[in-house]
Design brief:
- The protein has about 450 residues and is α+β, with helices and mostly antiparallel strands.
- The chain folds into two domains: about 200 residues, no CATH class; about 160 residues, Aminopeptidase (3-Layer(aba) Sandwich).
- Helices cover about 30% and strands about 25% of the residues.
- The protein has 13 helices and 22 strands.
- The strands form four sheets. Strands 1, 4, 5, 6, 7, 8, 19, 20, 21 and 22 form a ten-stranded mixed sheet that branches. The protein has an eight-stranded mixed sheet with strand order 10-13-14-15-16-9-17-18. The protein has a two-stranded antiparallel ribbon with strand order 2-3.
- Strand 14 and strand 15 form a beta hairpin.
- The structure holds zinc ion.
- The site of zinc ion (ZN) has 6 residues, from loops.
- One of its GO terms (cellular component) is cytoplasm.
- This is arginyltransferase.
- GO terms for molecular function: arginyl-tRNA--protein transferase activity.
Length: about 450
């Protein structure tokens, strides 16, 4: 029997999160090491009428993302979540619903084989080399690795891989960058820490002599004559290097540090660290601020095809926000689910469907998500049945939830209890089913849910 324990924490005052992190919990005869677990909050389906990318200029006027907070995960677990289209912002993980979103976000990555050096990039590297006292490349032959080596071995310029800890110096640079480049007047030390220093990894990442010692988050700091001029926030993961954010001193605008850093990180990832992929976050086809990424020869994750990687060139047209998902295509998704329902009625009987409907009460409504799930924020809704990239109803029906034994820790009662899935309330059942739809069996087996 494929029985497993699913650990649920009933968290009524938040203290439990801090107390349990990085410690062990003893249950029956075994000890659970919490730093190996994916500890997450219940997923939220958040609709925001005010889209930061298109500002309501498109036919579809809604920006919808699916997200959850993560208290802890291992670099490998995060790597798996990236392959499911998620990306982290601090400790919050999110992705968009490509069926309903005004701006459809796709995860993109590249590597040194896909990357083709062009005139623009050559110029950027040459300029930088000259500005730090290296010789520029005057030959017709442009050996990219050699040019990058020159940068890494220069005596006035240094890139140091540091722990992602907060310092005043880093914050001052962030503040200056946000104000000058993004006209953002709302920066605070707290938001910098939350956004670019905090992460759910149990340990900091570590790189020594261009070798990965530990996976996790790092700050790759650029020093020119010992002065901090830029910071790349990076996640070092088993399948590659993931770019989180990049900040630089606007006084050095002429060095094109944003462009340079992407080339450096790509080469550093493949040629120095020997990691396979360089993850560049999300791309939105219609977003001018993001399409520069396609110059790096990217491939994208396709949620419509079980999260397979497609070359950006071949997928670009489908990714067009205004083109994708006619009503017909949406109906196809819906019909698929209806067929499953009919099939399953034959297999498992009408009662099963009825009971399931009570839990999952969702008629697959196409454009208006409804049934507020949490009442603290009017913008949080049920996760719809039709969501490309999530397990569909058939898979949920076929999953044997009854075999899950739920280990329940109630903070108010201060003790552990075992439940069966069947004994749980419809709300909890639904949350568990949703988690299964979102992260699948394998990750769910390693998860702890904070209700
Ligand atoms: Zn938008």
């Amino acid at each position: 029997m494929n029985q497993f324990y699913f650990f649920v924490l009933i968290d009524d005052n938040n203290n439990i999160r801090i107390n349990l992190k990085k410690s062990n919990v003893k249950i029956r005869m075994t000890t659970i090491n919490l730093s190996e677990k994916l500890i997450l909050t219940r997923p939220m389906y958040i609709s925001d009428k005010d889209c930061g990318y298109c500002h309501g200029s498109k036919t579809i006027k809604e920006s919808i993302s699916l997200g959850f907070h993560v208290e802890n995960f291992t670099p490998l677990q995060y790597d798996k979540l990236i392959q499911l289209g998620f990306r982290r912002s601090g400790t919050f993980l999110y992705k968009t619903n490509v069926l309903r979103n005004c701006c459809k976000m796709y995860t993109i990555r590249t590597n040194s084989k896909l990357f083709k050096i062009n005139k623009e990039f050559k110029k950027c590297i040459n300029n930088f080399n000259k500005s730090i006292g290296n010789e520029g490349n005057t030959n017709k032959q442009f050996d990219l690795n050699k040019e990058i080596q020159k940068i890494f071995t220069n005596e006035f310029f240094e890139i140091r891989n540091e722990t992602p800890e907060f310092t005043d110096l880093k914050y001052q640079l962030y503040d200056k960058y946000q104000k000058k480049i993004h006209k953002d007047k709302t920066t605070s030390a707290k938001s910098f820490k939350r956004f670019l220093c905090d992460s759910p990894f149990p340990e900091y990442g570590e790189i020594k002599d261009h070798k990965v010692i530990k996976y996790g988050a790092i700050h790759q700091c650029y020093y020119l004559k010992n002065q901090l001029i830029a910071i790349a926030v990076l996640d070092v993961l088993p399948s590659g290097l993931s770019s989180v954010y990049f900040i630089y001193d606007p006084d050095y605008n002429n060095l094109e540090l944003g462009k340079l850093s992407a080339i450096l990180e790509l080469i550093y990832c493949n040629e120095f660290l020997k990691l396979d992929h360089y993850y560049m976050g999300f791309i939105i086809e219609s977003c001018q601020k993001m399409v520069y990424k396609q110059k790096f020869g990217c491939e994208v994750l396709n949620p419509l095809d079980n999260y397979k990687w497609y070359s950006w060139e071949s997928y670009k047209e489908i990714a067009n926000d205004e083109l994708l998902f006619t009503k017909d295509q949406l109906l196809k998704f819906e019909d698929k689910n209806r067929e499953y329902l009919l099939d399953l009625k034959d297999i498992r009987g009408v009662d099963f469907i009825k009971e399931f409907d009570e839990i999952y009460n969702d008629d697959g409504d196409l454009f208006s998500p409804k049934d507020k799930d949490l009442d603290n924020n009017g913008n949080i809704y049920d996760i719809p049945v039709n969501f490309p990239g999530l397990k569909d109803l058939k898979q949920v029906y076929e999953k044997n939830f009854e075999s899950i034994e739920i280990l329940n820790y109630s903070n108010s009662m201060g003790r552990l209890r075992f439940f069966n899935f069947e004994d749980e309330t419809p709300t909890i059942k639904k949350v568990l089913m949703n988690i299964y739809r979102i992260i699948g069996d394998e990750l769910m087996n390693e998860s702890i849910l904070i209700i």
